[in-house]
Amino acid sequence: MKQWREYRAAFILILIMLCAWELAARLAELPFIFPSPTGMLIRLWELREVLLFDHLPATLSTIMIGLAISIVLGAGLAVLMNVSSTVERAFYPILISSQTIPIIALAPIFVLWFGYSIWSKVVVTVLITFFPITVNTFDGLRSGNKALRELLLTMGANKREIFMKLSVPSALPYFFSGLKVAVTMSVIGAAIGEWLGAQAGLGYFSRRMMTQFDGAGVFAPIVLLSAVGIVLFLIVVWLEKRLLKWRSKE
């Protein structure tokens, strides 16, 4: 009941928007270009076997591989930038500049390089998810309490002990904040890659339905993509609460 009270306003707003959309779609009577929410759900049910067993696994593979690479490289680079100011000065401007390049313009180039294999989509996903993980983790590593650091030094702690006992616990909340952004963006990255060049995946299927002027069919995989993003976000929130129980006690 407590959670319901917290999210009641959001739920009511979403319900109102869906009802307005449903009404507008029924009045317009243009299901091929303006499908109703109920029409999308019906189409999603009709396509459930194709979407769930043929295309969803391909999209999930892209998302999981891309996120894994971003976590390893992003956290690793954040640690290196925290340890070495030279590495920070060399890579931080590149990180910022990478976000000014439109990914949708680079995706066709990756298709040329890697073909229609999974790796062209994985690279797009990594480029989108790498930045929030790296920057948030780096900020977290630098957020350690200076008084605690000085206390550990006076007690004879070495750099490794300070890193493990102060820097890592300080960085974990920031890391999870970046990861929550990254998991939602990973769905967008995978969909963009599949939309521009793929042989399977929810983004590919949505584009295929567009060529058939099937409005509900275009939105059906998008609804599934949205559900995937929400589920991944909730998993990260659950992991954060499990691993950072000490935050709730502060």
TrEMBL record:
One of its GO terms (biological process) is transmembrane transport. InterPro entries: MetI-like (IPR000515), MetI-like_sf (IPR035906). The keyword Nucleus does not apply. SUPFAM superfamilies: MetI-like (SSF161098). GO terms for cellular component: plasma membrane. The keyword NADP does not apply. It is a multi-pass membrane protein. Residues 56-236 form the ABC transmembrane type-1 domain. The chain crosses the membrane at residues 58-80, 92-116, 122-141, 174-198, 218-239. Keywords: Cell membrane, Membrane, Transmembrane, Transmembrane helix, Transport. It is found in: Cell membrane. It comes from the Bacteria. PANTHER family: ABC TRANSPORTER PERMEASE PROTEIN HI_0355-RELATED, ALKANE SULFONATE ABC TRANSPORTER-RELATED, MEMBRANE SUBUNIT. Belongs to the binding-protein-dependent transport system permease family. This is ABC transmembrane type-1 domain-containing protein.
